[in-house]
Amino acid sequence: MLITFRLNGIPRRMDVDESMSLLWVIRDVLDLKGTKFGCGKAACGACTLLVDGQAVRSCSYPVKLAAGKEVTTIEGLSDGEILHPVQQAWVEEVVPQCGYCQPGFMMATVALLDQHPQPTDDDIDKSIVNICRCGTYYRMRRAIHRAAEIMSQSEKRNNL
Amino acid sequence: MREERNKRGLTRRKFLVGSAVGVGVILGVGYLSRSMIRRYLAGIANTIELPYQGDTDSPSIWFEVLADNRVILHSPKVEMGQGTFTGLAQMAADELEVEMSQMVVVHAATSTGNIDPFATGGSNSISSLWIPLRELAATMREMLRGEAAKMLGVDPANLSIRSGRFLGGGRQITYGDVVSSVEEWHVPETPPLKVTADFNYIGKPVPRIDLRDKVMGMRMFGMDSIMEDMLYGAVARPVHIGARFVSVDTSIAENMPEVVRVVVEKDFAGVIAKSRVAAHQAKEALVVEWEYDDNWQTEAIEKMIRVGQGNPVEIQKDGNPEKLLSSGENIITREYTSPIGAHAQLEPNGAVALVSEEGAVIMISTQVVAITRKEIAQRLGMSEDQVNVIPTYLGGGFGRRLHTPNAVQAAVLSKAVGRPVKCFFDRKEEFQNDTFRPPTHHVLKARLDDEGRILAMEHQLSSGDVMFGSPMFPRIATPLLGADAGVWRGGMIQYGAIPNHRAVCWRVKLPFATSWWRSLGLLANTFAIECFMDELALKTGKDPAEFRLAHIEDNERGTRLKEVIRTVVEKSQYRDDILPNGRAMGLAASTDANTPCAQVVEVSLQDKEIKVHKVTCVIDPGLVINPDQVRAQCEGAIIMGLSAALYEKMEVRDSQLTPTIYGPYRMAMMRDAPREIDVVILQNDDQPGAVGEPPLGPIGAAIANALFRLTGERQRAMPVMA
Amino acid sequence: MKELGGTKKRKVQLCLGLIIVFAGIAFLTNSASGHYQDQANTLDSSQLENGHGEVAFRKMMEVLTHNRCINCHPSGDRPLQGEDSHEHYFSVQRGPDNHGVAALRCESCHQEENNNYSGVPGAPHWGLAPKEMAWEGLSEQEIGAVILNPVTNGNRSLEELVRHMTEDSLVLWAWDPGVGVDGQPREKPPVMKEEFIAAVKEWAAAGAPIPD
C-alpha cells in the first residue's frame, strides 16, 4: 500500500504493508534508529513517538493510521544542533545511563508538557509510565521539571 | 610471533606507530607477562576485584591521535550505562594533557587487538584500568613531547602543554601536527603519573561523554546496527525448560512471503527474510519438535533451593560457631528467600553478522567481546583472527550480555546466505531464554549472650549457579574455589567482631540457566543478613545502628564500614521509630568488592502499597573519578534494587518461565522511584574501587526493616509485600 | 519424555469438540431468539408479563457482568484488564475525560482496531465508561438501575440506550476481542452477539423490567 505522512516535517512516501507497525517502518524502511524496540507489545514505551502531537507507542500502531499525519521522532525534536528544551534538560541533569529507553521517555515528556506546561509530580507519575532498567527515574523527574522551566522562560522571552 | 614480542617487551614498554592519511595510529605494546588465570582466581578469592585482564603485551590499539588534535581512546571495556567511557576519558585526558572535548571514546573492535579476555562487569572497569590506562597515556604524551621538542628545536623539559598543544621557544605545535609528520618514534621509560593535586578531570563531575548522542537518538546500539544488503533472521527458541532441539518441519515457513532461506542446524532452526516482521512470522510457522524431561513448577524449584541439599562449602569461619549454635539458650533462627529474577534490560539480545570466505564481522552489544569472538570462530571453523567483533553501546547490560549464543546463531544464518543478517530476540524470547538471577534460600542462626551481644552467628545460603557453568569462567576454577563466588558475593558475615561466625554455601543445580545479575548474590545475601541483624537488634532492645557498629571489628575494612554507617545515620537523622509524618525508617549496610555502602530509607504505606520516599546512601568506593556518575550509579542501583525487592518475580509454570512481558513482570516505574535520593560519597582509599554494584546491596533489607516498624510484621521473602 | 505431544494434542482436540458443540447450541439458540425478536415487536402488554423481559434481562446481564464489559466500566480510576479483571498494568489512569492522561491517552496504545501482532486490543473511541456508569462490583439489578437512569447512563433514553448497547462499535468489540499479548484469543462474553442484541431489544420492548 502506498502511504504518505510527514516525518519530522518532511513528507515521506512509501510502499509498505499497511499493517506493518510504524516502528519498523521508521526503523527499517526509513532507517531512523532513535525510536527503539523494547517489547513490541506497547508495554515498555521505548518506541514512543508523536503522531499529530500525541504520544503513541509505535510498535502497536499500524502504519496505515499514520497516513496524512505528522509523525515526530526523537530525531525531529532538535532544530539542527539546537536541542529541544526537553533534550536540553536531559543534558543539564545528565539523565541517560545506557540511554536505550531515553528517546521514548523524552517523547512522552514532550506530550506531557504540551498538556501540562507546569506538571506536578503527580502529573508526571500518571503520564510517564515507560520502563527504564538503569533506574534513571530520579533524574528524569528533575529533568521534566527543568524542561518545563526552560520552556516557560523561552515563552516569556518570546512574549517580550 | 606473539611470544617473541612478549619476550622482547617484558621489561620495557614499546610503542609501535603506524600512520594513515592524516592520522597517527599509535599502538600500545605492553610490558608485563602474567599468569592471567592465576591472577584471576586470586583476585576472586580475595576481593572479587579483578585487575585489568587485557593483554597490554601484544600490539593493540589504545589511542589514535587525529590530525585535528582529537584523541580517540579505543576502550576494551564496553559502555552499558555505567559511565565507564567517561571515566576512562577523564583518566586519559589528565595524563595526555588534553581537554575532555578533545577525547573521543569508541569500543575497541577485536581487530584492534585491544581485547579484554574476560568481561565488562564486576564493577571493575575503572579500578582495573586505573594504572595501565594512565601509564599508556602518560607514555604517549612523553613520546609526543620528545618529537615536538625535536621539531621546535627546544629541550623537551622546556616544553609546556596546554590542551594537546606544546608551547616552547615562543612557538607551538599540536599533537595532531606531531603525529602527522613523525615516522620513527622513541619510546621513553614510563613517566611518573600525576598526583591528586594535579588532576584536571579526575574527581570532577564532568558530563557523560555520550550524553549528547544519547539525547539525540543517535544510531549507537547493537540493535541500531545495519550492514549494506542486510537480511533479517529469526531463530526458533524453546519455551520449555531444558528443551533440546530434535527436528523441524519447515514446509510452511519456507513458502511464506519474503522468506529467503530456512536454515536447519543440528541444534537450532532459523529463518532469513527480507524484513524483521516477515522473519519473525515465518519463525512462528516453524513446527519444531523439542525434547525435554520434566514438568517443572515454581513449588518444585523452591523445594530444591532449600538449604541442606547439594554440596555445602564453608566460605568463612572464625571461632567455633557450630558448637555454640548446636544447642543452648538464646539461639535465634530465621529464614529468608529471594525469587528468580529477570534481567529485563530494554534492548533485546541479538547481533548483525556478515560471514564470508575471508572471515566474519559481528556487530553486537556484548559484555564478553573475547568470548563472543571465540565462540563464533569455533562454530564457523575459523581462526579467532578471522572474526572481528565490533562492540556497540549496550541498551543495558546487568550481566545479561555475558552469554551471547545469539551472535553465533546470527553468524550461522549469515553464512548460509552469504549476506549480512540481523537477528534479534523478541521480548518473549528474551524473558524465556534469560540467564536468570538464581532463587535463593538463607538460614540465619545466632546466639546472643546475656548482654545482648552476638556470641555466634551463621549464614547458610543455597542458590543456583552464578559463575559456575559460565563460558567466562574457566572450568578448572570450580574445584579450586569450591563455592561459586558469584553466589556468595555479599554472603560472608561482615561483622568480624562476632567472636564465632561462619558462612556456608550450598550449590544447587537448577534445570534452567541462572547467571550474573547486577551485584550477583549481593542483593539477596544482604537482604537476609541485614534483616536478621535488625531482628537481633530489636530482640535485644538496642538501636539497630549501634548494634551493628558494636559488631564490626576495628581493622581497615571495618573502620570504613563503620564510617559509612555513622555517616548515613547522621545524614538521614536515622531513628528506629515511626516519624510524625507516618513514615518509618530502615537501615542496612553491606560491603561488596571492598566498597562499603549504607542506606537509610523512609517508607510509608499508601493504599496497601509500599512507598519509598527517601533514600540516604553513603558509599565509600575509594578515590572517585566522577562523583556525578558515582551518584548516578547509586541512584540507578537503588531503584533497580528497590524494583527487585518489592515487585519482581519469575515463576515456573508447566516448565515455562513466566511472565514474558513487562507489566506482568512488574518493575519499578517513575511513580515507584523515591522522590529523594541523597548520595554521600566518602573516599577513604587512594585507589578507585567498585561502584556499579555495591549500592544494590542494602536497599532490599533497608526497606524490609522499615516496613517492620510500620506494620510489626516481618517480611522475610522477596519480593516484599505489605 | 518428548514434548507433551500426545496429551496436549488430545486436549486440543477435546476443546475443539466442545467448541463445535457450543457453536451448534449457539446456532440453535440464535435462531430461536431471532424468532423471539420478531414476536417482541408485536407483543402486547399482557404478554410482557409472561417473563420474556426477565429472560432477556438475565441473558443481557450475562454479558454486562462479563469482564469484557466490566473492564471498561470500572468503579475506580483505573481501567481493568484481562480475564481476571486485574487493574491495568503500569498504573494506567482514567483521566479527566475517561480517555487517559496527557502523555498516556488510551489511544497512545489502543487504536481503532485490534492489533493482533502486538496483542493490543482496539476499537473506535476506546476508553472508559464515565465513572457514574460504573458496573464493577454491582449486582445485576444495580447494573439494570444504572443503565436505565439518565443520570448514570449518559442521559440516554431507552431507545438511545438500546442503540448504544446493540450498535456501538466499542460495545460490540466484546465479540471481536482479538488476541492477547500471548497470542491467545481473548474470551468472549458467554452469549453470542446476535443473541445479546436480540435480548437487549426484547428486554426494552418488554418495558425494560428489572426482575429481582
Key features?
heterotrimer; A: 160 residues; alpha+beta; Ubiquitin-like (UB roll); DNA polymerase, domain 1; 2 domains; five-stranded mixed beta sheet; 5 helices; 14% strand; B: 722 residues; Aldehyde Oxidoreductase, domain 4; 3 domains; seven-stranded mixed beta sheet; 19 helices; 28 strands; globular
CATH secondary-structure class of the largest domain in chain A = Alpha Beta
Number of alpha- plus pi-helical segments of chain A: 5
The name of the CATH architecture of the largest domain in chain B is: 2-Layer Sandwich
Q: What is the CATH architecture term of the largest domain in chain A? A: Roll
Our estimate of the beta-strand percent of chain B is: 15-25%
Give the termini distance of chain A in whole angstroms.
49 Å
Radius of gyration of chain B: 27 Å
CATH class of the largest domain in chain B: Alpha Beta
Description:
The complex is a heterotrimer of chains A (160), B (722) and C (212). With 160 residues, chain A is of the alpha+beta class. Chain A is 38% helix and 14% strand. Chain A is globular. Chain A starts with a strand and ends with a helix. Helices cover 29% and strands 24% of the residues of chain B. Mean pLDDT of chain B is 90; it is low at 1-50. Chain B has a seven-stranded mixed β-sheet with strand order 11-12-9-19-16-17-18. Chain B folds into three domains: 2-212, Aldehyde oxidase/xanthine dehydrogenase, molybdopterin binding domain (Aldehyde Oxidoreductase, domain 4, 2-Layer Sandwich); 222-292 and 349-424, Aldehyde Oxidoreductase, domain 4; 298-341 and 435-711, Aldehyde oxidase/xanthine dehydrogenase, molybdopterin binding domain (Aldehyde Oxidoreductase, domain 4, 2-Layer Sandwich), CATH 3.30.365. With 212 residues, chain C is mainly alpha-helical. Chain C contains eight helices and four strands. In chain C, helix 1 runs parallel beside helix 8 (193-205). The relative contact order of chain C is 0.17. The model of chain C is unreliable at 1-48 (pLDDT under 50). The chains are: A alpha+beta (160), B alpha+beta (722), C mainly alpha (212). The interface between A and B is large, with 56 and 63 residues.
